[in-house]
Amino acid sequence: MKREAWIYFPLAAFFFMATIIYFFLGRVDLQPNIGGVTQDIKVNQIEWAGVAALLLSGLMMMMIGGVFYLTGRKMDKRPEDRKDGEVVDGAGDIGFFPPSSIWPFWTAMTAGLIFLGPVFGWWLTFLGVGFGIWALGGWLFQYYRGDYQH
Questions:
Q1: Phi-psi bin for 82: left (phi > 0), alpha (psi -120 to 50), beta?
Q2: Distance CA 123, CA 67 (A)
């Protein structure tokens, strides 16, 4: 996992450097409008949305890289991490991959209902929460009934 961490740390450094450059060069010229009359003076302001987006992107890269780095310190070396690793060293079961399922689709549809509620009416949000409980329950218990039960 240390190799994965070193993908994200340079990205974090890039975003932090871009944040500093954007802070000084990303100025916005505004013409104030006082009393409905546009003034002739221009105000040079910092564009805070871009600064915040770049800064948070850098922090996110640091967080992901830090998780990979700390996880890599706790794990044994994988065949990909060793200098003498061969392809056959990684053979065998990799993990459990679930079969196709309709439940993520229904969960996404109910999330859409919940988010459309404030736009079209709160009754749609309550309907979405009701269907959401059903969809999450189906997704959670999909391996306990039907073709894929244990």
A1: beta
A2: 41
Residue 85's contacts (CB-CB under 8 Å, 6 or more residues apart) are 78, 79
Domain ranges of the chain: 2-81, 103-148
Q: Collapse the DSSP code of 81 into the 3-class scheme (helix H, G, I; strand E, B; otherwise coil) and give the result.
A: coil
pLDDT digits (tens, 9 = 90+) for 16-44: 999 999 999 988 776 666 666 666 666 67
Phi then psi for residue 28, to 5 deg, are: -120, 130
As a whole number of angstroms, the distance between CA 63 and CA 70 comes to 11
Considering the entire predicted model, what is its pTM? 0.58
For residue 78 the two structure tokens come to 């994988």
50: which residues sit within 8 A by CB, 6+ positions away? 22, 26
Phi-psi region for residue 146, left (φ > 0), alpha (ψ -120 to 50) or beta? Answer: left
**Three-state DSSP class for residue 97:** coil
Reported as type and span, the H/E element at residue 28 is: strand 27-30
Q: Rounded distance, CA 47 to CA 43, Å?
A: 12
3-state secondary structure at position 70: helix
**Structure tokens given for 71:** 């996880």
